[in-house]
Amino acid sequence: MAMDGAPLISLIIPVYNAEPYLRRCMESVLAQTHPNIEVLLIDDGSADASGMICDAYAEKDNRVRAIHQANGGASSARNAGLDAARGSWIGFVDADDSIDAAMYEKLLRAAAGSGRQLASCGYFEERVDGGRRYINIPGKYINLPGWSAPKDMPGDEALEYALRFRYFSGSVCTMLFDWAVLAGGGAPPLRMDTGLFNNEDVEFLIRALLRADGVAIVPEALYCYFQSETSSSRAFTARQMTVIDAWESIIGHVSPVSAGLARAAKITHTEMAFDLIRAAVKHKRFKMLPALRKAARRHIKESLAAKEVKPRRKFLYILILALPRLFVPVREKLRGLFYKEPV
Length: 343
Known about the structure:
The chain is an alpha/beta fold. It is built from 14 helices and ten strands. Strands 1, 2, 3, 4, 5, 6, 7, 8, 9 and 10 form a ten-stranded mixed beta sheet that branches. The mean pLDDT is 88.
């Protein structure tokens, strides 16, 4: 039941062939300790029983609405949810994941306490065998050893951090958004780019950060990303290359704001391009290499000149760019020998 004075939080869940996981997801969402939520289940043309599960939850719980549409992808489904949302705060959950019962209560409390328009928490990965691996908890980032997360970040600092380290924890699913940021207030409302299939949520988050006054941080892992066998073995396709388009878009958004932000975005663009080169070689998608090498060269000067990029990484860039089919396997063998995955 809704309590007087408790802000309505709209939780948007895109659903596509999620029958094995959707009930678990929904039970965690409906168990939220925040008393006033609406849950928007966007059935994105599912071919399994997901649509019927959505309708069943909508029938038995008046907090749930089921919306059915032809398949358009996750961004299209999330946009449909944004168009239908009635809440003053917006959250996103993926249908194969689950969340801590107090996640949105804690995020909202952090946002209200700091006066920020966005709030972020950490996440962990749960494997098929039930094992858990903590990925990112604010203040304990594996790529930022010794860094201590503040309670909140002003907008410019949050934006720089998101650009340098890709995003806060995982995706929009670890965030809570003030509707005022997404509504626009005179500017066009924020919606996800349906032409992107990789890093589309990061691109959306960067645009939100450009409008927001900052981010409140909850230093706990409250979002559970379920690493299914399907997700861990997902085929590498041309759609993954839209990560380059996403970061080109990000560079375009931040360049008018600051040369420093544009530089940070270009450095990350280069890193993402090399990630794609490594993935293309691993999956033997060699026909994609010319386009990916071209993308990697586009802004590589910023990375080679950057003090924060380690010399060994710069050297690796040069080797992989020259002979990717030779040096990517060598890198992976060395990585397997010397790199231990954090737990």
